[in-house]
Amino acid sequence: MEELKKVMIVDDSSAMRAFIISSLEELGNFTFFEAKTGFEALRELPRGELSLIISDINMPDINGLELLSFVKKSELYKNIPVLMISTETKEEDLKRAMSMGASSYLKKPFTAEMLKEQVKKLLGL
Amino acid sequence: MPENNKALKEFIAEVEELVENIEKNLFSFEELSTEGKESPELINAIFRDFHTIKGISGMFGFSNLSNLSHQLESFLDKIRLGKLVVDNQVFDILLEGKDLIVSNIKKIADGSKDDIPIDPFVEKISQVFTKNSQTEERSSSVLATLKNVLTEYEEHRLSDNLKKGRNIYSIQFVFSLEEFDERLNEITSILKTSGELISTLPKPSDQPGNIIFSLIFATEKSPDEIPIKGKYIYEIEKLIEERFITNEDKDITGRDIDTGQLKSISNTIRVDISKLDNLMNIVGELVTQKTEVMQLIENVKMHLHNNELNLTLSKVVNALGKKINELQESVMAVRMVPLNQLFEKLERNVKKIAHELKKELSIVVKGGETELDKYLIEELADPLMHIIRNAIDHGIEEPEIRKQKGKPTVGHIELSAYQKGNNVYIEVKDDGKGIDLVKIREKLIKTGKITSDQDVSDDYLIQTIFTPGFSEKDVATEISGRGVGLDVVKSNLTRLRGIVDVKSEKDVGTTFILTLPLTLIIIQSIIIKTTGKLFAIPIASVEEVVEINKGHLLKISGEDVINFRNSALPVSYLEKIFEFGEMPETFRFLVILKVGEKKAGIVVDEIIGYSDIVIKSMGKFIKTRGIAGATQIGDGKIILVLDPSGLLDEIGAKM
């Protein structure tokens, strides 16, 4: 059987996490780590070899850019692709994310199809 | 969207929860503002909640609700970015908006659509906008190194705090991964009692299992008054708003390391640049003395007819020489810093200036990783800014004119750096209208510098932009005028032993090329002798040395030239340039100097040798064109160091 790919979803909205998970479940072969905050994400990082991180930008304790900066500066994690999510009004923040090494981004609102397409591309499925 | 009941339930529950939060925070906010207190954190929390509602309702396809929360989110965004003042009317609107969300979500929960009309409400919001909007001047004063990881809002909080004159500190902690969030929560709740926490940046630690956090904290207090003092182990650093260089601004970074900790977190140290200067001077003198010792050893060896001893002496002195060279290289490496920081500053200023001049432009920066001596980088900011200002002000055309010329309306500036040999090149390239040589020619004729029928080269015309009193526009503008012209840029660069070249093509653009030595302290040079006097010439500007005799000389309009590889090369004499009062009798060598596009030969009697020299300035008051300073050579003698760029100008002027 094919190995399960580990995806971490970082978003303070449980509805967003539920939406992302239910969309990606259709692709199969994933296990999900959910992080409500950037802090939880930092804690989850060492727990498994992640294939992908999907993170919101606007979050309470540390924001998605700060999390991204941590990931990209870590020898251990810098090769994990990071898909950033934000709203179309925060164009500037997305630009910063891309310049800091994010692999790709999605602007809210996006459809399950758009998400699946990005994830497939990033994971080479 | 996926028809997913679980996700939909999650959605409704979350919106209800968020609305409760909003209500609670709104009332706390009102309470605090009646007490006259600021509460940017509450406003940000409310913004975030509206933002989340907008995001998720869009995702779940509830467009009316999404639109409504979008309106409220942008309303709050204006407030948190300081563009809208909260008064009673604004407060009532926020409450009304919140209630509208509640009634819509109720309908969704009942299984119908989010169709409660929001138009009248949206209309009300836009009226408040036009009434209360304040245009906030966007401050460019954001600490460059931080800017990238801050969201737009955090950046605004940072500049707001800077504007209010508060101190900005970066406080660094190391925690274990198991307990970092607890510790941070404790610390942030203490910090919040005496200031505002702007950003929390996690960084990987070298120790596995540890994590570093850098907090950006704004406060009116001094490092000793911050209430975490003595309770936690941390490094604190005051961040200074980066401004354009002036010497007074340097080295004011305060640093206070809390004592009592077991080990230091970072493996870098900050050193006062003057200590490095001192170290470099000592190394420089050591290099000079090395040359002296080596010469001495050669003499000793000649008198010492002992092969074994001679061999040992050579070995020892060579090993010593090698170590001194390594020492010199290491000290030089310490002083080298990447150009990035300077380029970032320039980039920000470009945007500001473009905005002031109402020009549209994009800037691309390349090669920021190129390293240059710290001192040179500091000194380069002004000349580079001047060139860039000129490019924006005089070079890049107004959008309409660009359109007429068939160019993209957005002007383009490219700032790039690269290293080649012992030099670093910095280029500023614009795609503007280019330097108008016809206009320059007209001006020179008008001022009597040339006659209307005189034939002068394009290069000559371009070079006049570097002469004092030249200004492409006669009226100095707000941006580039200020009575300082490109002549100052040139003289600043000459002082740094750099040169500036310019290439320009009409309607295609202008490129300024700055050539700089990697470091100023130790330079390689050849030592020459003419009419009994010794001089050092920096080798970087010596193209080659050829043997000549008087018979090679030709005369063109009364001046000496030689036919050098089928082109006429001007020949001059240090005796003539510095007016020694005598001319050389023997002609043996011609040292060919080349700086940028300029080239000429200097006649000398003797080539003494090759040496690393340390140039000492002769003080502010002795200024002779063509002389860069003085140096001590091997036998302790003091000799003058020639400045090839100045010499070539001098030769050009006398031709």
Question: What does the model show?
Answer:
The complex is a heterodimer of chains A (125) and B (655). With 125 residues, chain A is an alpha/beta fold. Chain A contains five helices and five strands. Chain A has helices at residues 14-25, 38-44, 64-73, 91-99, 112-123; strands at 5-10, 30-35, 52-56, 82-87, 104-108. In chain A, strands 2-1-3-4-5 form a five-stranded parallel sheet, sandwiched between helices. In chain A, α1 (14-25) packs across α5. The mean pLDDT of chain A is 87. Chain B has 655 residues and is α+β, with helices and mostly antiparallel strands. In chain B, 42% of the residues lie in helices and 24% in strands. Chain B has 18 helices and 23 strands. In chain B, α1 (5-34) packs antiparallel against α2 (40-59), α2 (40-59) runs antiparallel to α3 (63-80) and α11 (340-356) packs parallel to α12 (374-395). The radius of gyration of chain B is 34 Å and the shape is elongated. The chains are: A alpha/beta (125), B alpha+beta (655). Chain A binds chain B through residues 12-16, 18-19, 22-23, 26, 38-39, 42-43, 46, 57-58, 60-63, 65-67, 69-70, 73-76, 87, 89-90, 92-93, 96, 99-100, 108-112, and chain B through 1-2, 4, 6-7, 10-11, 13-15, 48, 51-52, 54-56, 58-60, 66, 70, 73-74, 77, 148-152, 154, 177, 180-181, 184, 199-204, 211.
